[in-house]
Amino acid sequence: MSNSNQSPANLAAPRAASSTAPRVVDAKTRRKVIAASFVGNFVEWFDYAAYGYLAVTIAAVFFPREDPQAALLMTFGVFALSFLVRPVGGFIWGHLGDKIGRREALSWSILLMTGATFCIALLPGYASIGFGAPILLLALRLVQGFSAAGEYAGASAFLVEYAPPHRRGLYAAVVPASTATGLLVGSLMAAGLTGLLSTEALESWGWRIPFLLAAPLGLIGRYIRTKLEDSPAFLEASAAAAPEGSPVGSLFKNHWRQLIQAAGAVLLNAVGFYVILSYMPTYLSEELGLDATRSFLATTVALLTYVGFIFITGMLSDRFGRKRVLITASVLFVLLTVPAFMALDSGSFLVIVLVQILVGAMLTLNDGTLPSYLAEMFPTKVRYSGFAVSFNVSNALFGGTAPFVATLLIASSGNVLAPGWYLMGAAVISLVAVACSVETSRKPLG
Q1: How far apart, in whole angstroms, are the C-alpha atoms of residue 62 and residue 207?
Q2: Where does the Major facilitator superfamily (MFS) profile domain start and stop, copy by copy (predicted)?
Q3: Contacts of 395 (CB under 8 A, 6+ apart)
Q4: What is the DSSP string of 299-311?
Q5: Could you report how far apart the first and last alpha carbons of the chain are, in Å?
Q6: Is 416 helix (H, G, I), strand (E, B) or coil?
Q7: Which of 39, 85, 226, 399 is least surrounded, with the fewest CB atoms within 10 Å of its CB?
């Protein structure tokens, strides 16, 4: 293996004459790649879990208390606004990842993301500095949104380019598994804090604990990444020909159809992920009247099964193809989403848990397949950009806004099934987008 501190250009130069020779990747290196990809996305979604699951507490800390529902809407509004910078981050991180290398982009994105998360733990509340508190919170969430825009796309491209050709789906499934694990640990921590601390202690200092943990985890992730060589596919592409012009410019000029299809395919994932896995505890407690501890418990049980289903889905997509699995996911959501939300209002805790497991399993068919599908849609020279732009545009418009839109739809319509209809609409659009695309699982990476 080459020295990990060499730049991609230096690594490529001596290989130019033999760029057609395949690079041999050992199992130890692949394990490091998996660990490096896992940590960054784990930290990112652990933070989102902490923010989402403690939304009621954060609303009380950072906004006026006179109107709790308005405070909760503003809390989710800050969550949504942080996603608006994601397309900007997608363009920049995608450009850097395709131009100078996946490893370099990922090493800096995790440092910036975890630094902003850590700083949130240090913020004073509304009672101390008034509206300065939510303004500072928004500023740090914007930094998080910008830096996180490169994580999911970069880690997925990294894994797909390191994976054996017949196991790209399984390797890429590590990324959504890491996000679900982050949500799971965040859910467990939120449940523990909510159950063990008084409301006063939780609002005073307890909510800060999850955000403080970002710093050591982020430093570990960055250390692992700096010890890796860039992906074989990127090094081979760099050795064959130096990158010319802007990857994003090439993306829009030569691959705009794939970009539109990819953005549409992401829509179900964007809405489903945040409605089912992030917003659900708030929905169960605030809209259906389930106590907070049982809401967290139901979501935690669903997340435990979700992580296992993710890897099964990765293997299914390797066996049956990306399109078939993604289309199955969309059809199931069209048929079953609204009945599932109706069952959540049954009043039975067992039924609530079973419904969450069911819709979680349905979502894994999309979530576990999407990383390999998106990475394979674009050639190596624009892979990071294509993935980052399509994924972050859909998430900015429909993912980060999902908790806010769900809360607003219920408030304006008075119908607690409104999030289910919203999710069903997203599934229809994703179904059309995937149906119009080509199968990618059995093609070599371009």
Answers
A1: 12
A2: 33-442
A3: 83, 86, 266, 270
A4: HHHHHHHHHHHHH
A5: 24
A6: coil
A7: 226
Show the tokens assigned to 236: 């081979």
CA 300 vs CA 36, 213, 354: distances in Å: 25, 20, 12
Amino acid identity for residue 446 in this structure: G
Task: Tell me whether residue 151 is exposed, middle or buried, using C-beta atoms within 10 angstroms of its C-beta: 0 to 12, 13 to 18, 19 or more.
Answer: buried
What does the block give as tokens for 303? 């997340």
Token reading at 247: 């990857």
C-alpha 39/C-alpha 42 separation (Å) is 5
Q: Kindly give the interhelix angle for 132-148 and 102-120, rounded to the nearest 10 degrees.
A: 160
DSSP 146-157: HHHTTHHHHHHH
Q: What is the pTM of this model?
A: 0.81
**Angstrom distance (rounded) from CA 105 to CA 110:** 9
The phi and psi torsions of 21 (rounded to 5 degrees) equal -75, 130
Is residue 414 packed enough to be buried (19+ CB in 10 Å), middle (13-18) or exposed (0-12)?
exposed
Q: Give the type of residue at 27.
A: A
Please give the CATH superfamily to which domain 27-435 belongs: MFS general substrate transporter like domains (1.20.1250.20)
Q: By the 8 A CB rule, do 148 and 248 touch?
A: no
How far is it, in rounded angstroms, from Cα 158 to Cα 161? 5
Per-residue confidence in pLDDT tens, the chain, 446 aa: 434 444 333 433 333 333 444 566 777 888 888 988 898 888 888 887 788 778 888 998 999 888 887 888 888 888 778 878 889 999 999 999 999 888 889 888 888 888 988 999 999 999 899 999 999 999 999 998 898 888 889 999 999 999 998 999 999 999 999 988 988 888 788 878 888 888 899 989 999 998 998 888 888 888 888 888 888 888 888 877 655 678 888 888 899 999 999 999 999 998 988 788 777 777 888 778 887 778 777 877 888 898 889 999 999 999 999 999 999 999 999 999 999 988 888 878 888 889 889 999 999 999 999 999 999 999 999 999 999 999 999 988 888 788 788 888 888 888 888 888 999 999 999 999 999 999 988 888 87
Cα maximum dimension of the chain:
70
Beta-carbon contacts of 210 under 8 Å, excluding residues fewer than 6 positions away, are: 46, 47, 49, 50, 54, 186, 189, 190
Query: What is each CA distance from 439 to 114, 435, 442, in whole angstroms?
Result: 36, 10, 8
Backbone angles phi, psi at 428, to 5 degrees: -65, -45
Q: Which residue has the tokens 């910008």?
A: 146
Chain center to CA of 224: 20
